[in-house]
Amino acid sequence: MKKLMLGNEAVARGLYEGGCSFVSSYPGTPSTEITEYAAKYDEIYAEWAPNEKVAMESAFGAALSGKRSFCGMKHVGLNVAADPLFTISYTGVNAGFVIGVADDPGMHSSQNEQDSRHYAKASKIPMLEPSDSSEALEMTKLAFELSEKFDTPVLIKMCTRVAHSQSIVEPSDRVEVQKSYEKTPEKYIMMPGNAKKRHPVVEDRTLALVEYAETAEINRSENGKDNSIGFITSSTSYQYVKEVFGDKYSVLKLGMIYPMPEKLIKDFAESVDRVVVVEELDGFIEEHCNNLGLKVEGKEIFSLLDELSQNIVADKFGVTTEKGIVLGENIPNRPPVMCAGCPHRGLFYTLAKNKLTVMGDIGCYTLGAVPPLAAIDTTICMGASISGLHGFNKANNGENDGKTVAVIGDSTFMHSGMTGLVNIAYNSSNSTVIILDNSITGMTGHQQNPTTGYNLKGDPASKINLEALCKAVGINRVRVVDPYNLAECETVIKEELSAEEPSVVISRRPCALLKYVKHNKPLVVDSTKCKSCKMCMKIGCPAISIKNGIADIDNTLCTGCGVCSQLCKFDALKAQED
Predict the structure, then answer these.
(1) Are 29 and 139 in the same domain?
(2) Are residues 495 and 535 in the same domain?
(3) 497 pairs with which residues across the strands?
(4) Which of 64, 53, 98 is nearest to 183 (CA)?
(5) Is the pLDDT of residue 35 over 60?
(6) What is the mean pLDDT of residues 1-8?
(7) What is the per-residue pLDDT across 228-269, written as a single tens digit (0 to 9) for each?
(8) Consecutive H or E run containing 122
(9) Helices 384-394 & 418-427, crossing angle to 10 degrees?
């Protein structure tokens, strides 16, 4: 029976139907839902790993044992997992091993527009690229078959639009796959002598995959009525081309984006007068066509930046389309802000008030960088805040000690912050790290992590004790504060910055959006006491505004955290009476 599915849900269905038994991932938008949907199938063991490298290594271990496996991540997560990725390309697999990576053109929730297709080429691992949910399901199953046929991990590349759009799929039954494990040291022990022998295997495999790509059904040529233009495209760009031109022009749709066919592309180019490559971000397909000696157009028409769309494709070729609803030009920007009652707000207010330099990290708390708090100086990648703090302080011979801190979330600390803290302890920089412990992985939609005490399915699990962990790596000074208590935050942070040794401050309060968190009654404004000083506006809480010259609190948003009332010198903000 046909069903409407999200692209990510369809990948999970493909894992189920393809006989996958083991899934290990780290949440990262737009890939997160693949693993969350996979966890709903009893036949699949699914887990959140501390980071993508651990996820990939765990999934490889499962494949080695004889069970089909999967690991999923967003594009920047593939950077973290690159170390095992390149070597697993050499070892090959036992049972099928599929790696899901979701790119984010347009940077809807990411710090860069990385094009993951380059990883397929660099690691010499085949990559499939679905353009809708139906293909996401079918290509996931195909990926397992190719993995075992060609003895290789296989990458499935999603993008935001395919991952989070819905289309029709036709589910089918599950197949069960079990392979036996045999000790094969020359294949799986990648010391130099063995690795040298495996490299030629990889090159031969790539040639065999190119031959497969020539006739693979997922690479298809769709003949058009007009041969003046032919489009070579893939993924969501294919959808844009078809929506704009329909069957007017011929289209070569590449479902296998690495390695790409050669003869198929040359034959297609000969059948049309002009070849245009439509692809998002880098000219990956275009470069391949150029290497084949073909004259094609691509990035001189389409930008290296941002997403494409139906309208962009149409505009480049002078096609008039129905624009639909056009938004007014005078609509004000609505920048993202931390939620009302966010436990990070009081902490960031304290940091900004004391004019500290703050090394930031990846998470919803990165929003502490935007006005009016503007409390963060840098944000690079997961875990970089702690490592960056160490270098910032160490390189300046103590000039920045007492004036600089790092902030990092609990999940990000477990992901890649621990090693940076070890470096601070081991190489002894006078650095203060603030762990923003909101008891969940907030940015990607409330996933569990090793500090929450629950696993992916919500079952009780071992809970990391952050205080004990920090002390175990060599940090003697570890303090815990409530970020709703501004006086406590300021006192403790000043004390730790004045100390002559490394320290950790754990700012601990659960995310205000967690279902089990009970809020206080909303605050109200005593209009007779409000002096319009706007001190309450300095924390950037979306529940607070100014109306008719005085403060106003939206009781549908206010959680009663009381941070704003601590800023009011006139006692105008009160707890709501019964």
Answers:
(1) yes
(2) no
(3) none
(4) 64
(5) yes
(6) 95
(7) 999 999 999 999 999 999 999 999 999 999 999 999 999 999
(8) helix 117-123
(9) 20
Residue 139 has a pLDDT of 98
Overall pTM > 0.90: yes
Domain membership of residue 332 (yes or no) is no
Q: Angle between the 263-270 and 284-291 helix axes, to the nearest 10 degrees?
A: 90
Inside any domain, residue 516: no
Residue (of 212, 94, 204) closest to 153 by Cα position: 94
> For residues 86 and 79, what is the distance between their CA atoms, to the nearest angstrom?
11
- Residue length of the chain: 578
Nearest to 405 by CA among 353, 359, 470: 359
Question: To the nearest 10°, the Cα dihedral for 470, 381, 332, 350?
Answer: 30
DSSP 415: I
Q: How far is CA 480 from CA 174, 438, 488, in A?
A: 49, 13, 10
Q: Give the pLDDT confidence score for residue 578 in this predicted structure.
A: 47
Which H/E stretch holds residue 312? Answer: helix 310-316
How much is the pLDDT for 327?
66
> Does residue 185 register a pLDDT over 50?
yes
Q: Are residues 203 and 228 in the same domain?
A: no
Residues 540, 523: Cα–Cα separation, whole Å = 16
Return d(Cα 48, Cα 54) in angstroms, integer.
10
Residues 206 and 230 in one domain: no
CATH of the domain at 457: 3.40.50.970
Alpha-carbon distances of 482 from 227, 344, 452, 488, 503, rounded to whole Å? 68, 10, 17, 7, 17
Same domain, yes or no: 238 and 99:
no
pLDDT tens digit sequence for 519-565: 999 999 999 999 999 999 999 999 999 999 999 999 999 999 999 99
Rounded distance, CA 308 to CA 315, Å? 11
CA-nearest of 121, 26, 142, 38 to 75 is 26
Same domain, 381 and 293: no
- The pLDDT tens digits for 336-349 are 889 999 999 999 99
The Cβ of residue 288 has, within 10 Å, a number of other Cβ atoms equal to 22
Mean pLDDT calculated for residue range 419-440? 96
Report pLDDT for 324: 61
Domain that holds residue 536: 523-575
What tokens were used for 575? Answer: 């707890």
User: What Å distances lie between residue 153 and 59, 89, 147, 285, 300, CA to CA?
Assistant: 11, 7, 5, 22, 34
Question: Where residue 257 sits, what CATH number does that domain have?
Answer: 3.40.50.920
289 with 381, same domain: the answer is: no
241 found inside a domain: yes
- 544: which 2 tokens? 């607070």
Q: Are residues 274 and 363 in the same domain?
A: no
